Amino acid sequence: MSKPVITIEAGASVFEAAEKLLTSGISAAPVVDTDGRMIGIVSEADLMFRAETDTSPSRSWFQRLLADDAVIARDYVRTHSRRVTDVMTKDVVTVGEHTEVKEVAALMKRHNIKRVPVVRDGKLVGLVSRSNLLLGLLSRQPLGEATASDEEIKEKVEKEIGRIGAIVGPTTNVVVDKGVVHLWGYVRSAETRDAMRVAAENVPGVKRVEHTLGLIPNEINFAA
Question: In the list 95, 106, 196, 211, which could disulfide-bond 99, CB 3.0-4.6 Å?
Answer without folding.
Answer: 95
